[in-house]
Amino acid sequence: MKELDLLKKDWQKNTDSFEQVSEIEIYKMIHKNSSSIVKWILIISILEVLLWTGFSMIFSADDYLKKINNEGLSFTLKFFTYLNYAVIVIFIYLFYKNYIRISAIAATKQLMKDILKTRKMVQYYVWYNLGMIVFGLIMGFIIALYYNPETIILRNKVEHDPKIMAITIGILAIVTIVLFGLFWLFYRLLYGILLRRLHANYKELKKIDL
User: Fold this and answer.
1) How many domains does the chain have?
2) Looking at the keywords, is Transmembrane helix present (predicted)?
3) Residue 195 belongs to what domain range?
């Protein structure tokens, strides 16, 4: 936004006769910048899906289920996997619609509304992904503990010894919190910068609309 700051300084030096022209120039710059930000949100979300898809192909859950002789869970896992992809595709489609709308609109108030809508949608997308990560960790722990023959001794101890159960749950909670924190930081870095820039654009538009 350095160009916008320079333009505003130049605007302040000029006489009142240039005020309307300067407002139009500032709006055009904010409009272009907002469109670019939403485009990058769309691109990053698509790249993110491709990245996780690549990881899932390398570390296949089907291979693990075959190893523990429990392919019956494959259908359930595939159902949740496809459901997750369906939700993410919907988010990406909404990001695309926001990009098209923001690129085409001309009214300041509508641009402000769409910026707020986009920020909320990205926040929902991030929290959805974080929720699915926690859900995946819990499901992975349950499968490893109750369906893997190699953990039958640990499973019996957990079921019959409250202390071991408490320790096991504590370890799971710590691992989940740590991983949740790491992914939260990842998403904050990935989308946080773009969201802050969108919010800065919104505040500038609010000044113009006064």
Assistant:
1) 1
2) yes
3) 2-209
